[in-house]
Design brief:
five-stranded parallel beta sheet; 11 helices; globular
Length: 244
């Protein structure tokens, strides 16, 4: 309990509150207030007005991630429609220089990606701080890219267990990805050439500790979206749900 109080004393009230809810399984406002009072946090009317919002009221961003050709935009659009929230495509946030580089078959460097990820963070922060939810389609291939995106949650502490971003990896065999990219290129639907797929697959890294949701994306889009909705709506050990 001392560690949670330390977060409050350091001014990190939102993070401390989230950790209390997760660890002590506090599902309601009443339990939340009782716990704070038990922990020695004043529960006067003035102090209550300064308390951080409940986790259920915080914004949530579901990030549909994976390599090019995995179906991020298709699934992201359908999921956003099902959740009745905005859909954002990370490709739209790339500067023209990045798009030109990729269209020539040149892989992006971290120097190319980081400014792009920072712009994305600013866009996501607006949803999270306003208590809204959104769906983002973004490659987010490396752990450090996902960590950068998680900083769009003002209460997130790097490496911590609590974040308002939930990542869903669309898992697709390489031969299926290749076929999809070749078809997309022939139809002129995207600036990403198939020869960049190898570099993306080499970049992809998933750490089990991140709790990234992995879905078999060779299924029909409607089935994939239904699976994601079920997983997101399954109560976690703390009794809370990601979306409703």
């Amino acid at each position: 309990m001392q560690s949670f109080l330390a977060y409050f004393m350091e001014g990190k009230k939102e993070y401390g509150m989230k950790l209390m809810l997760v660890t002590f399984k506090l599902p309601s406002v009443l339990s939340y207030l009782k716990f704070l009072c038990m922990a020695g946090v004043s529960c006067t009317s003035n102090s209550l007005s300064e308390m951080p919002p409940m986790v259920q009221d915080a914004g949530v961003v579901v990030v549909i991630m994976g390599v090019s050709g995995a179906g991020k935009s298709t699934i992201g659009n359908l999921l956003a429609e099902a959740l009745n929230c905005p859909f954002l495509d990370a490709d739209d946030f790339h500067p023209q220089s990045n798009k030109e580089k990729m269209s020539k078959g040149i892989p992006l460097s971290d120097d190319d990606r980081m400014p792009w990820l920072q712009v994305l963070c600013q866009a996501l922060k607006e949803y999270i701080t306003c208590g809204k939810r959104a769906v983002l389609a973004c490659s987010a291939l490396r752990n450090k890219y996902r960590e950068t995106l998680r900083t769009s949650d003002p209460s997130y502490i790097p490496g911590g267990p609590c974040s308002s971003l939930k990542f869903v990896l669309l898992d697709v065999p390489v031969e299926v990805l290749t076929d999809r990219l070749n078809k997309r290129l022939a139809e002129g639907q995207h600036f990403m050439p198939p020869n960049l797929l190898k570099s993306q697959l080499e970049l992809l890294e998933i750490d089990a500790s991140e709790s990234v949701i992995e879905v078999d994306a060779t299924q029909t889009p409607s089935v994939i979206v239904d699976i994601i909705k079920v997983v997101l709506n399954t109560p976690r050990e703390d009794g809370l749900k990601v979306v409703t």
